[in-house]
């Protein structure tokens, strides 16, 4: 016991490797507005090029430990995937008009196919994302995706919300545990209790404060105009708190091998970002949206770090060796870029 305690005490402390987003709102606006105009002029044909330009800017300005990420996709595969999707929709529309019963069968088939296509799209997007020349991976089963997108949300509704925290947990487990950086899989160790407590806090505070406000507005007619404003403020605070805590829980539960993540979003800091973004987006009739995205991304990255246990460079070097030894066995013929 003493030997174990001594070893734990002598273990090197985790190194905090910070995330930083170095993008600029005005730069991103120029990319966004050009992408929007060209996509409209070309009736959407330019949209794959727009997506690639957009993601390459965002990825290249996202840094971890002073090294940036890369987006590797090319527009043509994305364009082919979207053409297939459009043709499928046109075929469905035509068949539905000619034979409604056949259209219903086709709609059911397309609905059942959604988990398959989501898996393929996630696999494509992961493989097109890289850090220090190592690509991310994603591989999930159809059954798991079907449960996450259809069964668990349905159970959340049928249980009157009791199983809704479980639905969120299962979704996060699906996204994380099927992902990998090179050959090392991500892990997610949050529990139903973790999410359930957050839901109970939000519901409890909402009822404790909301009911008295509603009762006061009924008793005093002069407060009829004040009560809705106070209720909106309350719901905004609850939403912001919930968003911050769910995000913190997600990253606190996320690990990559021995390395863990940590997020420290706060209610005041996040509320400030939400309010500024909302006000400026309304005042500019939506033109502030790109800068709002940059502001939100910067705030998240400023409050997010990777706690590296051991040398991050050695870990990445080992991943390179593993990938070289295995060869490129991860490529999939039927990946879909969307």
UniProtKB/TrEMBL annotation:
Listed transmembrane segments: 29-50, 71-95, 101-124, 145-167, 195-216, 223-244, 269-289
Matching InterPro entries: DUF898
Keyword entries, A-Z: Membrane, Transmembrane, Transmembrane helix
Transmembrane recorded as keyword: yes
Pfam families xref list: DUF898 (PF05987)
Coiled coil regions in record: none
Protein name: YjgN family protein
């Amino acid at each position: 016991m003493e030997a174990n305690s001594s070893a734990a005490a002598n273990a090197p402390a985790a190194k905090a490797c910070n995330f930083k987003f170095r993008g600029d709102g005005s730069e991103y606006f120029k990319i966004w507005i050009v992408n929007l105009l060209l996509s409209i002029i070309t009736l959407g044909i330019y949209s794959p090029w727009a997506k690639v330009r957009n993601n390459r800017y965002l990825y290249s300005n996202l840094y971890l430990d002073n090294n940036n990420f890369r987006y590797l996709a090319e527009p043509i595969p994305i364009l082919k995937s979207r053409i297939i999707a459009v043709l499928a929709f046109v075929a469905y529309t035509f068949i539905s008009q000619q034979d409604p019963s056949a259209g219903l069968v086709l709609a059911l088939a397309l609905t059942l196919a959604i988990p398959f296509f989501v898996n393929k799209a996630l696999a494509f997007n992961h493989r097109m994302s890289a850090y220090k020349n190592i690509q991310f991976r994603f591989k999930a089963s159809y059954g798991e995706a079907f449960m996450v997108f259809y069964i668990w949300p349905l159970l959340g509704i049928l249980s009157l919300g009791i199983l809704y925290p479980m639905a969120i947990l299962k979704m996060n487990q699906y996204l994380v545990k099927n992902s990998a950086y090179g050959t090392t899989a991500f892990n997610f160790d949050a529990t139903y209790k973790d999410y359930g407590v957050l839901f109970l806090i939000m519901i409890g505070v909402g009822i404790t404060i909301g009911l008295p406000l509603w009762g006061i507005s009924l008793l005093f007619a002069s407060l009829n105009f004040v009560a809705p404003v106070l209720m909106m403020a309350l719901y905004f605070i609850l939403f912001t708190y919930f968003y911050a805590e769910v995000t913190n829980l997600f990253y606190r539960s996320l690990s990559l091998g021995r390395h863990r993540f940590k997020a420290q979003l706060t209610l005041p800091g996040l509320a400030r970002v939400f309010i500024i973004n909302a006000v400026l987006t309304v005042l500019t009739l939506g033109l502030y949206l790109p800068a709002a995205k940059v502001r939100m991304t910067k705030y998240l990255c400023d409050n997010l770090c990777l706690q590296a246990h051991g040398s991050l460079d050695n870990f990445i070097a080992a991943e390179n060796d593993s990938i070289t030894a295995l060869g490129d066995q991860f490529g999939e013929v039927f990946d879909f870029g969307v």
